[in-house]
């Protein structure tokens, strides 16, 4: 498959159930975390209702949804611009290793490069997920050298 085989579009309310199911599957596959589907559903709807929170993109292959990612935004005072964070990446097993994520990434990269207010693209990846790391490196991304810390409040 080539990028020409893919159509990238913004997600809408009709995609919520699929995005929810994909997010639940992704969390289980990558982190063995069981997410509450109702909470995930509400979280997706919150993004769709408030575009300042982010955006979901869906990759379709001949009209069939094949994968997704979510963009969120982080202001950088150092660069006077927004970092676009790629999150919630999921490719349906039937479309893995077929260029689905690459098509999504190239779409995001082209949009970011065309937007003067965007200073770059970032994502985080599980440190043991070598397959994903190789994919990101093949697409031209590099390890930024940061470690991530968190303090959950719920």
Give the key terms:
34% helix; Aminopeptidase; 4 helices; alpha+beta; 154 residues
Write the layout of secondary structure elements.
Blueprint lengths: L5 E5 L5 H16 L5 H13 L5 E7 L2 E13 L4 E11 L8 H14 L4 E6 L6 H9 L16
Parallel strand pairs: 4-5
Antiparallel strand pairs: 1-2, 2-3, 3-4
**CATH fold-level topology:** Aminopeptidase
Q: In the CATH classification, which architecture applies?
A: 3-Layer(aba) Sandwich
Going by helix content, strand content and strand pairing, the class is: alpha+beta
CATH class: Alpha Beta
Task: Specify the biggest β-sheet.
Answer: 5 strands, mixed
Determine the fraction of residues in helical runs and give it as a percent range: 25-40%
- The total count of strands amounts to 5
Strand order of the largest sheet: 1-2-3-4-5
Q: What is the H level of CATH, i.e. the homologous superfamily?
A: Gcn5-related N-acetyltransferase (GNAT)
Question: What proportion strand?
Answer: 25-35%
Mean pLDDT over the full residue set: 94
How far is the first residue's CA from the last residue's CA? 42 Å
GO molecular function, one term: acyltransferase activity, transferring groups other than amino-acyl groups
Keywords: Acyltransferase, Transferase
Organism: Arenimonas donghaensis DSM 18148 = HO3-R19
InterPro entries: Acyl_CoA_acyltransferase, Bact_Acetyltransf, GNAT_dom
